[in-house]
Amino acid sequence: MLHHLIVAFKGMAFGLSNIVPGMTGGAILIVLGIYEQFVDAVGNLAVNKARRREYLTFLAVLGLGAAVAMIGLARVLSMLLDWRPVLMMFLFIGLLLGTIPSLRNLHNDMRITPRRLIAAGIGLVVVIAFRALERQGFHALLAADTQSVTGMLYALLTAMVAGAANVTPGISGSYVFLLAGTYEPILEALSAMARLDIRWEVLVPTGAGAVLGIAVSCKLIDSALKRAPAMAAYTILGLLLGSVYGLWPDQALQRENPASILFALVLGMVVPLLLGRRAQEPMPDAGLPLAESDPEALQHLGRPPEA
Fold first, then answer.
1. What is the four-CA torsion angle of 99, 100, 101, 103, rounded to 10 degrees?
2. pLDDT, tens only, 206-229
3. CB-based burial of residue 210 (10 Å sphere; 0-12 exposed, 13-18 middle, 19+ buried)?
4. pLDDT (tens digit, 9 = 90+) per residue, 50-107?
5. Could you tell me if residue 242 is inside a domain?
6. Containing H/E element for 256?
7. Is 290 within a domain?
8. How many distinct structural domains can be found in the chain?
9. Residue 300 in domain
10. Quick check: pTM over 0.85?
């Protein structure tokens, strides 16, 4: 019971990240030490019958916590972002920076190589380009009426992309919703649920699309973490660093006290660093350094030694 309660609280943190523009659910899952468990459960739910009950229990408890946070805290979060947007953004930046040390748990061999630096650079550029589009106002060109049939289909496709993005550390699903012009209707629909006002035309296509996008993305990420864990970890590192640019507030910084900004940044960094101490150990299959790897064993597993 205590274990399920802990998972539920972690689900609340994951759910909160889903409605914060710039925060990525994947990064939160890394901080909480359940990222690999999450992608393994979602990516293999349909194919691993032996562990299906375990997967379903974990996902149900995590999902319940996420739903409670998204429904109950959507309005509070919106108020905080309107009240002190600069401080909130620096708090989120601190959370991301504090996440970086947890990446060492994704692989035992994290030495720097040219290929891994390139992977990190690609992740960095992707997030910066994504945020640049949002800041140019491209979401206004893509907005659709979510109450029409066309709008519901549009919301479904958008949610698929957002779901996939939200479990990729460094990319926020909320960015996708902002680009698509559907973020505000979704946030309003979540807030309305607390008043028992169910807006099916928004929630159904968004929920269905997000679930499908998460399932596909987790399968791909699970495969990447098992076949090339260090390359995947460096790509994630680039995505996280790019998100610092993505979260940097557009509002004038001089409106806030520098001491308050520093406090918010440090507070954000301390939280994941403390939580990271309870993170999972590196993957058993993460592998040894290249010089100690067994080429015959790697060939037997159907993959070459990683660079």
1. 100
2. 889 988 998 888 888 888 878 888
3. buried
4. 999 999 999 999 999 998 888 887 777 777 777 888 888 888 788 778 877 777 666 6
5. yes
6. none
7. no
8. 1
9. no
10. no
